[in-house]
Amino acid sequence: VSRITLIDYDKYDITNLNRQLHSNLLTIGKYKVDIIKENIKNINKKVYIEDIKEKLDKKNIPSLIPMDVDFVIDAIDDFRAKVELIEYCYNNNINIISCMGTGNKTKPEKLQYSDIYKTKICPLARKLRKELRNRNIGKLNVVYSTEEIKKDSLTTIVGSSPFVPATAGLLLASYVINKIIE
Fold first, then answer.
1. How far is CA 57 from CA 1, 106, 128, 143, 148, in A?
2. Contact between residue 41 and residue 47 where contact means Cβ atoms under 8 Å apart
3. Which residue(s) pair with 51 in the sheet?
4. Which of 67, 91, 132, 175 has the most other CB atoms within 10 Å of its CB?
5. What is the rounded distance in angstroms from the CA atom of residue 77 to the CA atom of residue 90?
6. What angle separates helix 123-134 from helix 79-91, to the nearest 10 degrees?
7. pTM of the model as a whole
8. Three-class SS string for 20-79?
């Protein structure tokens, strides 16, 4: 990998401490792309990293995602932006893998690869399938969990264990690297 584009408008928050690798007390309030870029550069100074501090939407996706990109990893929380990115990649034959929900999950061993139309249990995947059908999108590689959602009756907050989002991220990266070297 010689070139990476990181797109995220968000800054680290105290709520990220339990589940995001680069989040710590020193990174709170800092842009995620800046911290991740710095960490990647500490591993490989030769890699070119473009860091974009923008929120993806239908209007800016064509200017932010080049047609000659090898792969797109979608780990977007915003449903509308997720759908627009998937549709753009699908319509332009750009390889993409998308992460489904990891909130309220505690068992990383329940994560797996699938096509979106073969997923089960995951509420985000169910909602996304419906939207993709409406847009005539016939396939999408995803990482999703078959774990039933645990709901806390005392709160509406969707929490995450540190293991599931991290494992999902590793699965996404592994998928892309293996597809590139095939």
1. 26, 31, 16, 22, 31
2. yes
3. 6
4. 132
5. 19
6. 50
7. 0.91
8. CCCCCCCCCCCEHHHHHHHHHHHHCCCCEEEEECCCCCCCCHHHHCCCCCCCEEECCCCH
